[in-house]
């Protein structure tokens, strides 16, 4: 056992950057944003798929939780080939989810409750059912309509080979061949994701104008901003050069494919976001842009949050940092410093609809790479350990200066569904990987609201588009609300204290000379935070008052393993 001391403090950051006026008032720098995945949040009409009326009915629960804003994953008109990230009409709501009137009602109710509303914008690709793509197919090679997407002739004697060796993020080729009007094989089009998600050609002025108009459409309807899907992919390297090494399995070589390929993070992509920022600034001063950009190193990510671009960029490097004190400290220090260099806050996140939930991830043995879903035959997470670590990880994250995103259900401590019937999987990764990678369905299961209701209260009929695992009954919201020590109450208290102590706009000073290298210890304003990432208890500071902890402390003055504490 060892004593945590505070004699040496290393200042890493002050959250206020050169561009901020009054950081305490600037929600974009400090907000806790709750991600709603509409199809799995709450079902209003009883068809088993969540919808906007369902969300409206449950917004009160989010205000009660204490978040500042919600981000809605796509609700646009879509054939749902990628759960709505395949948009057929950027200015309409899919009937699955409701109507534009429902959207207006949702924004009004959220604003009444003091919640901002961020929506998802998907600019890299549309659905193949988008009218412009349909026109492009009909108009044929060489037509202006085809210029809005990325069509190319094939290689080989008869154009039978794809134009380059790029692969889809969902596995398989990134090119699909079209059929000409006379039935002969035609040109190929690029899709970095599914065949039904053709990439836009962002070199085309009409595409740029169209998206500026789409931004205006939603800003005029009251949206407070946008989470920008695959923000780093819009501009491709000139000439669409081959990947240096033909990569069959991007998951096996993430550095080579997901981060460094010629389709990612091209310098000219920033022109687009500068123009978007200028447009947002024409509106009230507090609209927001948040980048989903899987970019390395951190200095490249910081480019997206320069003063004339976006306000936030998810810190996925942090999400992927193993449960290891040294690694976490390095990641936090580097993230804060990198964002600070451009005057931006850091945007922390531990879970979302694309990754195994942190309550499951942190229960997996070892510190291996994050799996793309977990199947029944795979090594199963240790549920108890996973939840304990997830709670500690959350309290650590929520004590850091900057903003933070929560994924729906993490406030209940939900794990992934790890033994979902393979026949029920809907993520295109499952079939595109030839049934080798589970994909993301396990983290997208409908939420449990009421333990005793059919479908755990997800909707009025008990139908749920994916079955809920058994563990969800005990974790249902009504089993946790008002129950001391529950994960839900841990989150509520954390969010209240985070606000009261000003942790979001605060600063971070590491406390050195720790008794254990396995403890992360820092000061943010009045609050001293300690997270024991190791395997043995450490002694807490004598005389300090515990204001919050991720689990009940043993009462003997020690901080147990996999536990975070906030002290004053
Ligand atoms: C990132 C989104 O979060 C993911 O769900 C989607 O499949 C891809 N972008 C493609 O839009």
Automatic annotation (TrEMBL):
<dbReference type="GO" id="GO:0009313">
    <property type="term" value="P:oligosaccharide catabolic process"/>
</dbReference>
<protein>
    <submittedName>
        <fullName>Glycoside hydrolase family 13 protein</fullName>
    </submittedName>
</protein>
<dbReference type="InterPro" id="IPR006047">
    <property type="entry name" value="GH13_cat_dom"/>
</dbReference>
<dbReference type="Pfam" id="PF00128">
    <property type="entry name" value="Alpha-amylase"/>
</dbReference>
<comment type="similarity">
    <text>Belongs to the glycosyl hydrolase 13 family.</text>
</comment>
<dbReference type="GO" id="GO:0004556">
    <property type="term" value="F:alpha-amylase activity"/>
</dbReference>
<dbReference type="InterPro" id="IPR017853">
    <property type="entry name" value="GH"/>
</dbReference>
<dbReference type="InterPro" id="IPR045857">
    <property type="entry name" value="O16G_dom_2"/>
</dbReference>
<feature type="domain" description="Glycosyl hydrolase family 13 catalytic">
    <location>
        <begin position="35"/>
        <end position="444"/>
    </location>
</feature>
<keyword id="KW-0378">Hydrolase</keyword>
<keyword id="KW-0325">Glycoprotein</keyword>
